[in-house]
User: Fold these one by one.
Assistant:
Number 1:
Amino acid sequence: MAAVQPRRQERMMMNGIEIWQPDTGLKYSTETTFTEGSVRAMNGIGYFDPLFTVEQLGYVATNVPQPEVTKILQIIDNAKKFNLHYFSMHYGKWKDAVFFVGKGEYDVASWKVGEERVKSLSFNMTGIYPL
């Protein structure tokens, strides 16, 4: 009987390119959009008509070398759509889906030649297609 091979840990990728991995995972959330007529009445009862729900992922990494920051920024800047390989809590598995980033930030740690890096890089990714 052949020995069972351990599964290789999958890694996040953007457009098929392995990126600097987040520190401890991703902040995972979902956002649901409702019809304009969805309201909460004066008695506190909600009358909501959901349209769709999308996944949102919050990426945070620290002490990231400049070449890795540049690689990520060139993929996400200007709200460009990109393919993300990630672990979806909704589906309970690694999958690929299309996302975009509307806002991100980074704190520079060093501009010293040969040591360029950021203290932290963070941004929120929002799924293009509904769950």
Number 2:
Amino acid sequence: MGQKATESPLTEPLIAQCLYCTGAGIERVAHAIQFIFWTHTPPLSDDPGERRIAARIAMPLDSARVFAREIAAALRQSGH
């Protein structure tokens, strides 16, 4: 995951959910970027489908820039 040689190792001391999301929104807040990830639910009878929030994540701008570069690189590697 784009770890630099000078960074601390990535460990899993906490139980974290692995979420599958079908969409995301991004908003700038103060000195951070806030991501809101959601999953679409199918329509049921008379009710329209919904976008249910699965996670909210905020990260500092520098971390968000690294994240954006890593996403772009992963998309290039997938051939899309």
